[in-house]
Amino acid sequence: MDAAGQLGKNLLSSHPVLATGALEEARNAVTEVYLPHELINVEGRDEVAMVLNAVKDRNFTLGYLTYGSSARLTMPATEDTYHVNLTIAGSTFADRQDGERATTRSRLSGVVLLPDQLNRVQWTPDAEQLILKIPRRSLEGHLADLLGKPVRSVVHFDFQVDLTTARGQALLSAVEFLTAEMERPGGIADNPLARDQLEAYVMSQLLTAVPNPYTEELSAPAEPVQDGRLKPVVEYMESNADLALSPTELAKVGCMSVRSLHASFQKTFGESPMAYLRRIRLDHVRTELLNSREPDLQITDVAMRWGFFHLSRFAQQYRERYGELPSETIRRG
């Protein structure tokens, strides 16, 4: 396989890191993006056909990796990051320090590499993976927000990720959707707020799809808070609707967990907090369109000022709420 020739065919190809046949170059690139490790070709050749594409953001790193050879990696404990390896082609064979073993197969399974374990993974030549590198502060902070209490130790996920369950399929779908959006011009890559929310969704899917000590607590229905406790959250939304608000921030305003925030909004308003916020923002857009006296007013500028960056979706949501397109509102204004 010609690694350089394959680059344009692979996922995240607009975020290339390296395509190389040299084993040492491959090791250095994966070390730089993911973690220090030893790398050998088990067939005894000092070569691979590696392609690595990756993009890093505030919450985690997302990458596509293939070695195009029988590569074996030995990875010491990182202490500060989780790695989620979702196999989308071929197979890998993994084991870790505590004796656990796992086999991953295309779109059926993956593994979670814990920060406090040495891990070894052998790739078949046709193996390809989507790999998340998630700092402990991101994942454990997100879990703490969901639970409404501190998380101060490593989340000990099961080694193997079952992608055949409904939740496993949801995790794979979320990661693949994020991957596609990072490639799409005008997609989430250009919208930091939406990107943060999707990355948070991916972490939530991981926490519910892969068994861990918090699985039962996360699966239990969240208790809604008393209606009065939503008042400061709604007031904060209305006063800051032009800012990049997130469920995590809103939950902190209301002194509750993210799960309780969602349960409370569903009980009181029949919709999620972000859907409620969208209605507030749509109302602001409509008010501007109706009251503006600017002859050259641009709908795009108004929409983006209120957090609507996907304009076709904005127009659809506006029409669903008001029964007319934004352009029709301007003509009536």
UniProtKB/TrEMBL annotation:
SUPFAM superfamilies linked to this entry: Homeodomain-like
GO MF annotation terms: DNA-binding transcription factor activity; sequence-specific DNA binding
Membrane-crossing segments per the record: none
UniProt keywords, alphabetically: DNA-binding, Transcription, Transcription regulation
Residue ranges of every copy of the HTH araC/xylS-type domain listed in the record: 231-332
Matching SMART domains: HTH_ARAC
PANTHER family: HTH-TYPE DNA-BINDING TRANSCRIPTIONAL ACTIVATOR EUTR (PTHR46796:SF12), HTH-TYPE TRANSCRIPTIONAL ACTIVATOR RHAS-RELATED (PTHR46796)
Descriptive protein name: AraC-like protein
Phylogenetic lineage: Bacteria, Bacillati, Actinomycetota, Actinomycetes, Pseudonocardiales
